[in-house]
Design brief:
mainly alpha; two-stranded antiparallel sheet; two-stranded antiparallel ribbon; 20 helices
């Protein structure tokens, strides 16, 4: 998919602002009408682009409605376990949850960094790269993320509990949704939970939350004024549905749809469905790649995400490290936004195919690839964690978690990891016995 030659409008707008200030300082007149005209013309261009019709054939291959999505899936196991396997689930759930937290926490201080910048930080830290432990020092150590956790709280020696991150908050929020409304929650139920629990959000989630607060119905909140609806935000919300429907990819994907539809469309929705199914399947396999293949059976066979993931799986035997993975994705998806679902999903796939069941290598290589690397490493960590269980995660990754997760959820600043494990287990039993 080749993108149009999109100009650097941010740079052009900045130049316009700076020259306007300069000419005003030199006494020029009639600047304001020029600026007003530029704004009108830019808004007219935005409106004209939004009015352009979609390709009807592509739209048929990429529906938004759950039943239509399910009709376009390839064959698959749908349900792998015959019933809830409590013994198989216990250690794997803890591994998945801890793996997600570790991957996210490792990637958070270097989110969106270029590879070269991360390599430089590793040299400053006098540590290996890709990282095999948390960073020892990070820039701007006292700057708060999400208004709560200083950046140094994500480092090896200053960590005290899992620091705040939206990737973790949405995992917690999914649990709260299921506890309040059950596993058959509706999009409207999900909207009620967002309005109750979320004080803030980013990109597509921010748009949906603002739309809900403005009275837009939940089924329209993700489509109104939302250019981010195929970005990674729904993808990162996949994990709780996999945790609560272990061994049942179809159910996990259906729960994910009811969450994703609130803020996303098309491949944005499929990203959450795909990884929810992958995490569900990961509870039943011994190789993360098996889960990645199984999960393709829960999204439309000809959608762009499915094509991208199949390409990544086919390319994987030739991809030996983080740099080759990033180069391959940059070449394949040139022009795609670095926060998009598809390119980041492919990096997640490469992290798992490179690392296999070596937890440290999976999250280290995934973070080293860059792009939205706290998100990709969190998802990769969740999948490999569900495969290898808690016993397969080296203790250094969880040593400073101290049974604590920090959160910006309204009136719920702290969660306990052992309590989360009990609560997810309770919901998994409910799903399987409903």
């Amino acid at each position: 998919m080749g993108y149009p030659d999109i100009p650097d409008l941010k740079q052009e707008a900045e130049l316009l602002a700076h020259y306007s200030q300069l000419r005003h300082e030199y006494g020029a007149r009639a600047i304001q009408p020029i600026l007003d005209r530029a704004r009108r013309e830019l808004r007219a261009a935005i409106a004209a682009v939004r009015r352009l019709p979609d390709d009807p054939g592509l739209a048929r291959r990429e529906p938004n409605e759950l039943k239509r999505i399910q009709k376009l899936r390839p064959g698959g196991p749908r349900r792998i376990w015959e019933g809830f396997d409590a013994r198989a689930y216990a250690g794997r759930l803890e591994g998945a949850l801890l793996g997600r937290m570790a991957g996210c926490t490792l990637g958070a201080p270097v989110e969106f960094w270029d590879i070269e910048k991360m390599e430089s930080l590793a040299r400053e830290n006098r540590t290996s790269f890709p990282p095999r432990d948390y960073w020892t020092r990070v820039p701007e150590p006292f700057k708060l993320r999400y208004g709560l956790s200083p950046r140094e709280a994500y480092t090896r020696d200053k960590m005290d509990g899992v620091p705040t991150d939206d990737d973790i908050v949405y995992t917690l929020l999914g649990l709260l949704v299921a506890e309040s409304f059950g596993s058959d929650f509706s999009v409207a139920d999900n909207a009620r939970a967002w309005l109750k629990h979320l004080p803030m959000a980013c990109t597509a989630e921010r748009v949906a939350l603002e739309n809900l607060r403005a009275g837009v119905p939940p089924l329209q909140a993700g489509a109104k004024d939302n250019p981010y609806c195929e970005w990674i935000g729904a993808d990162i919300r996949a994990d709780p549905w996999g945790y609560m429907a272990p061994g049942w990819p179809e159910k996990a994907a259906a729960m994910a749809w009811h969450d994703a539809y609130l803020s996303h469309r098309r491949n944005g929705i499929y990203g959450e469905m795909y990884f929810a199914a992958a995490i569900s399947a990961a509870f039943t396999v011994s190789d993360p790649c098996e889960a990645l293949v199984i999960a393709l059976s829960e999204i439309p066979i000809d959608c762009a995400l499915s094509q991208g993931v199949r390409w990544a799986l086919e390319e994987a035997p030739k991809i030996r490290n983080y740099r080759e993975a990033r180069d391959a994705v940059e070449k394949r998806f040139a022009g795609m936004n670095r926060v998009h679902t598809i390119n980041n999903a492919c990096l997640t796939v490469f992290g798992l195919t490179i690392g296999g069941t070596d937890f440290t290598r999976v999250i280290g290589e995934t973070v080293a690839m860059g792009m939205d690397n706290d998100c990709t490493a969190a998802t990769a960590g969740s999948i490999v964690g569900a495969v290898v269980g808690k016993a397969g995660i080296p203790e250094r990754w969880t040593r400073r978690f101290n049974n604590t997760v920090h959160s910006y959820i309204n009136r719920k600043p702290v969660f306990r990891i052992d309590d989360l494990i009990r609560r997810f287990t309770r919901q998994a039993r409910r799903v399987w016995h409903s």
